[in-house]
Each structure stands twice: as C-alpha cells, then as structure tokens.
Write a structure and sequence with these properties.
The protein contains 8 helices and 22 strands. The chain is α+β, with helices and mostly antiparallel strands. The protein has a 7-stranded antiparallel sheet. Strands 12, 13, 14, 15, 16 and 20 form a 6-stranded antiparallel sheet that branches.
C-alpha cells in the first residue's frame, strides 16, 4: 500500500514539475474501411466509425461490423496514450470464409489446420492405421478412432493426434488460426510438441499429478514454440489444443481454447470442458442464455490460444465401462447440438461408427473444418 501511495505522489509531482497533471485516461481513435461501421468495445456498442473515445487504462476488445462482415482486435491502453486502431472489413458475403488475424487477449477461433498423425515408437506392436485423401484423414487404433475433414473450407487446418502409449492413450485435437496457412503451422507445432514429450517420457511410473504437470508442460512449450515461429506472414498465429490422457479408468484433460472434450455415459453428457471464449464469459456472468450464445455475433472470439495468450485448464474424470470420451473442434460442436452428439454416441457400437456418424451429421451444416476423436471404454 505504501509503495502505491509513493508511486502516485511521485507521478503527481513529476507531472506538476513538467508543467501539467499526469493523465489518468487514454484515448482510442477507431477507424474502418468502409466507414460508418458499428463499433463494439468489450461487447458494448459505442458508436460508429470513425470514433474518438476516452477510456480508462486497460485491455479492450474492439469489434467492427458491417452486415455479416466483421473484424476485431485487442489493444492495451496506457495512461495518457493516444492509440489509433484501423480495421478493414471484408466484403459481407466473403466474411464467414475470411481468416482474420486478431492479436492479444482475444482472437478469432474456428479456422482449423492440416492434420498430423503419429504412432508411438514405444508401442511397436500396437497398430495405428492411417488413411488419407484430399478431403480427409482418418486414424484408427485399438479403442480409438478419429477423422479430420476439410468440410466447407479450401484447406484443412485442424490437427488430431491418437498416440498409443504402453500404458495409456493420448488423444488431442487442435484448431489453428491465422492467415497464410499459419494456423496449419501452429496446430502442427502443438501436436508435434505433445507427441515428442510423451514419447520421450516414461509415463508408466508417473502419478496422476505428474501426468497433469507433463500435459501442462507440453501446452506451455507448444505455446512458446508457436510464438517463436510467428514471424512475417505467420505473425499472430495460434491454435486451440485439447488433450486427453487415458489410463486405468481415468482421463486427465488439458484444455486451451474452444475445442472440447466430452464425457458421455448412457446417452448423456456427464462432463464437458469449458470454452475459453468471450461468449462463455457472458454465460458465466448470467448475461446471456445458452440459446443466445449460439447466435451471438461474437461467438467466434476466444480468450486463450497457444501462441497468443497462454492458459490451460485441467479436468480429471473417472471412467466407467461403456463410457465414451469425445474430442472435437468447433466445426462439430458449433453446428451439431450437444443433445444430438449424445444421441449419436449412445447409438454407436464402436468408436469408428460414432465418429463416422458425427462427421456425416456435421458436413451438411458446418462452415468449418470438422475434427472428431473418440475413445470408447
């Protein structure tokens, strides 16, 4: 408290000596092309471009819309700073297919990356079948199956991982973001890093807490590698990553972003990861309903991603015989309702049957790549 008081006095006196008062607020000057576009700051409509607004210091998400077209960024405003923000809007009919680089705390999600599949060197006797075409790739292991499909995109920027370890399964899906194929690079780095770490470490002797720490280490190392490689046209690239380690009747989940893990039992979703997203924050505050969240204009804004703003949540789920663990990118769960996902899972006799049916349901309606990995107990 004393330090804070001394700092305030120092800043105040310094301002007086300099002939003025230390400024408390900052100013944002927001323009767009085309002009006269509505501006949302932290989800609240503040006017139209061009806009000159005084705000308290802090981090702000700036969202500019024009019909279905939109663009967004985040800025950090310091005391006395005047910051100019210029956002270009794509043509309305092209906006849903655009890749919009959004840097800082909030970012655009749901634009996927190519697929990277591995087989563990530690488990040579276990087979992992991989089949690849121009539009999809599928991976099959003893109790797990996954497909990543290009969906209604020009290229597939989702990644998936099915890794059979001597004593466990390691599953993951990643959804990259960033223009110039940078999302593909980011999600590949994340899955590659995960695979390398878990092949190198001997998890058989690890406690659950040690496994959790290793998952966190993998997410953090991937984050650092992505940031290191985010140069030139790849600046601002990032990826979601949800990872599941399954062993001895328990699943340990690590999640960054808005890809999801579901635990489904008896036709019901009993557990699900929570999205790192702007809309999820509104849900948590009780400001919108689940139905409103599905239609919210900022539903694609996420608050955490590897390579951009690091954060990871952990979950520990007890598994029972017949349980299904499902991992998906938002190309599935943004377009197929949770109730329908649970219904398909309850009807599937195998991991492969479940995945194929989910992909079949998603493809006619999704506007994104779609990736699903299922483990069936």
């Amino acid at each position: 408290m004393k330090n804070a008081v001394f700092l305030f006095i120092f800043l105040f006196l310094t301002g007086l000596v300099a002939g003025g008062v230390v400024p408390i607020n900052g100013t944002l000057v927001i323009t767009s092309e085309p002009v006269n576009a509505p501006i949302y700051i932290n989800g609240t409509l503040k006017g139209r471009t061009s806009l000159n607004i005084t705000l308290n210091p802090g981090v702000y998400i700036i969202n500019v819309t024009n019909g279905k077209a939109w663009n967004a960024t985040t800025v950090t405003l310091t005391p006395g700073e005047k910051k100019e923000v210029v956002l270009s809007l794509p043509k309305s009919e092209e906006s849903e297919m655009s890749l919009l680089p959004i840097l800082g705390l909030f970012l655009l999600a749901g634009v996927g990356a190519g697929v990277y599949i591995y087989r563990s060197r530690q488990s040579k006797e276990s087979s992992t079948e991989v089949r690849k075409t121009d539009s999809f790739i599928e991976v099959k292991a003893e109790r797990a199956f996954g497909i990543s499909h290009i969906g209604n995109r020009e290229n597939n920027e989702d990644n998936l991982l099915i890794l059979k370890l001597p004593d466990a399964y390691l599953l993951a899906v990643a959804d990259g973001l960033g223009g110039h194929n940078a999302g593909e690079v980011a999600s590949q780095i994340s899955v590659d890093t995960l695979k390398e770490i878990f092949e190198r470490e001997d998890t058989k002797e690890m406690s659950e807490e040690e496994v959790k720490a290793l998952l966190g280490k993998a997410h953090e190392l991937a984050h650092k590698k992505i940031k290191k490689n985010a140069i030139g046209e790849r600046e601002g690239m990032g990826t979601t990553l949800v990872t599941a380690f399954i062993r001895n009747g328990k699943a340990i989940i690590a999640n960054t972003g808005d890809s999801r893990a579901y635990l489904i039992r008896g036709g019901k979703i009993v557990s699900r990861t929570k999205d790192h997203s702007f809309v999820q924050q509104l849900l948590d505050k009780g400001e919108i309903t689940e139905e409103e969240a599905k239609r919210h204009p900022m539903r694609n804004i996420i608050t955490k991603a590897l390579g951009i703003d690091f954060g990871v949540d952990f979950y520990e789920w007890e598994l029972e015989r017949g349980d299904v663990l499902l991992l998906s990118t938002d190309g599935l769960h943004d377009y197929v309702d949770d109730s329908r996902i649970a219904e398909i899972v309850s009807q599937g006799k195998s991991a492969e049957e479940i995945v194929r049916k989910l992909i079949e349901d998603a493809l006619p309606v999704t506007k994104d790549n779609v990736t699903v990995v299922v483990w069936k107990g």
